[in-house]
Design goal:
Blueprint lengths: L2 H11 L6 H12 L1 H13 L1 H15 L10 H24 L3 H6 L2 H9 L4 H19 L1 H18 L1
Helix pairs in contact: 3-5, 4-5, 4-8, 5-9, 8-9
């Protein structure tokens, strides 16, 4: 849910109009629209690059993992999921909040990985590596928009 929808829904549930602070939040959200679209587009167009670079960084830190076992199917599956998380971060940037992560879910994924025997700590490390690559790609100013969402994912897997 976007910040705008969230503000309107909250005000409606409380049977009131949005207050001045909420209106300012919507104004700021609208002003930052082009920036958020640019950042989300950069993430989308560089998803494969981020996954590839993040995987290399991760494998340097954790060389013995299911994703680096020589089993192409495992590697492809892990990298597909890493791309899925980059997409979720882009959705959050567009929405202006972490609701896409909460609605689409990371906790269910954590339980799925656990049931498949995939080391959860590895996911936290892999997402940390991708976050680091995203910071390099985006630069510090734009990266400030994405790091809270990567941090949420990393925290879920920690």
């Amino acid at each position: 849910m976007s910040l705008v929808k969230q503000v309107i829904q909250t005000a409606d549930e409380e049977l009131r109009y949005p207050n001045a602070g909420e209106i300012r939040m919507i104004q700021n959200f609208c002003r930052s629209g082009e920036e958020r679209i640019r950042i989300a587009t950069t993430l989308a167009s560089n998803e494969k690059y981020l996954v590839d670079r993040g995987s290399q960084r991760f494998w340097q830190r954790c060389p013995v993992t299911p994703s680096n076992s020589g089993n192409l199917r495992k590697t492809t599956s892990c990298q597909r999921d890493q791309g899925w998380y980059i997409r979720l971060v882009a959705y959050c940037v567009l929405a202006g909040n972490q609701q896409p992560l909460e609605e689409i879910g990371t906790i269910g994924m954590k339980e799925m990985y656990r049931s498949l025997g995939i080391p959860i700590a590895n996911w936290a490390q892999a997402m940390q590596a991708i976050k680091e690559e995203a910071i390099v790609l985006l630069g510090e100013a734009d990266a400030a928009q994405v790091t809270p969402y990567f941090d949420h994912i990393i925290q879920t897997f920690s």
